[in-house]
Amino acid sequence: MPLGNPEISTGSATINSTVTTPFTLRTVARDQHCISRKDISPNALRVLYRLREAGFGAYLVGGAVRDLLVGGQPKDFDVATDATPEQVKQLFRNCRLIGRRFRLAHVVFGREIIEVATFRANSDDGSGDREVENGMLVRDNVYGTIEDDAVRRDFTCNALYYAIEDFSVRDYTGGFEDVLARRMKLIGDPEQRYREDPVRMLRAVRLAAKLGFSIEAATAEPIPRLASLLNEAAPARLFEEVLKLFLSGHGVASFEGLERFGLLAVLFPESAAALKSNRTGALRRILIEGLGNTDARVANDEPVSPAFLFALLLWPAFCRSLMALQKQGVAIEEAQRRAADRVTMHQLSTIALPRRFSLPMQEIWLLQSRFGSRQRKRVYRTLAHPRFRAAFDFLVLRGTASAEHAEDIAFWRETQQQSSHDQDSAQDELAAEVLVEGDEPSRRRRRRRRGAPTALGE
Ligand code: ATP
Ligand code: MG
Question: For tag attachment on the chain, is the N or C end more exposed, with fewer CB atoms within 10 Å?
Answer without folding.
Answer: C
